[in-house]
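Operator note (shift B, R.M.): manual run for Chromosome segregation DNA-binding protein requested after the automated queue skipped it. Running by hand, logging everything below so the morning shift can see what happened. Input copied straight from the record, untouched. If output looks odd, do not overwrite the archive copy; leave it for review.
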Amino acid sequence: MEKKFDRRGLGRGLSALMADVNIDSVSAAPELRASELLLPVEKIVPNPDQPRRDFEPQALNDLAASLRQKGVIQPLIVRKKPGQDLYEIVAGERRWRAAQIAQLHELPVIIREFTDSEVLEIAIIENIQRAELNAIEEALAYRQLMDRFGHTQEKIAEALSRSRSHIANLLRLLALPGDVQQMVQSGTLSAGHARALITTGNATELALKVIGRGLSVRETEDLVRKSAVDPAKRRALARRGEKDADTRALEADLAANLHMGVQIDHVQGGEGGKVTISYRTLEQLDLLCRVLSTIPRDAEF
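Run finished. Output pasted below as returned.
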């Protein structure tokens, strides 16, 4: 009789996975070994939502050499792709990639049923536990959990044993220009340095100075304070239709808290402006209405 698996919420997916196969263990329990199957490598496909995008070639080659000698000791966790004779990786993509380098034709797997949210959660946790995500990849993974599956910062923090401030600080990095984010991803700029640049209007320029001078995080913070954008420059940015880093950071913080798209537009030459909130579902609209309705009617702004 086929065993049925309960759907699991955020924070329980990894527990269920660890009950099936101990990722950090060299050997698995006999009863779990009995549940393994061998699948041809070509029938196994990667998870398109895998939060990790960069796989260090030398590390893969080292793992491939180990697999040639010892074989694949830890089975992959996979799920069946609906209507296809293919299996999507839930955990173990590095082993799958290394196995191809080692020219292995079959891999041991354990097949389980997981929702999209659970698969993403497990992929994130597996990578985070092994310290394989850089700060931007980790932030993008959290953003994906929030945007695609509606999880709050508090819920993610609790499930992944992280502080809410850790989650919020990483998400704020996504307000930085793309070239600065790339510096963090490549390891040229640390996450600590990048955080100091979030509120600046010339993050790219300052990032290059930080790298060129080899500044510490504290020295970077001093550099940011000395080069703070004055009001005249802020108004000049507004006239050109550009947003300063403070505005981008505020948009990111509001979006992270509301789980909706937020756009802030200042009126040129004035102190006012407008805030545009984009909702995707009626449930989100209902939530927004409830939040706004809690503001006292006699509140003064």
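Quick read of the result: Residues 135-149 form the longest helix (15 residues). Residues 34 and 110 are 10 Å apart (CA to CA).
Leaving this for review. - R.M.
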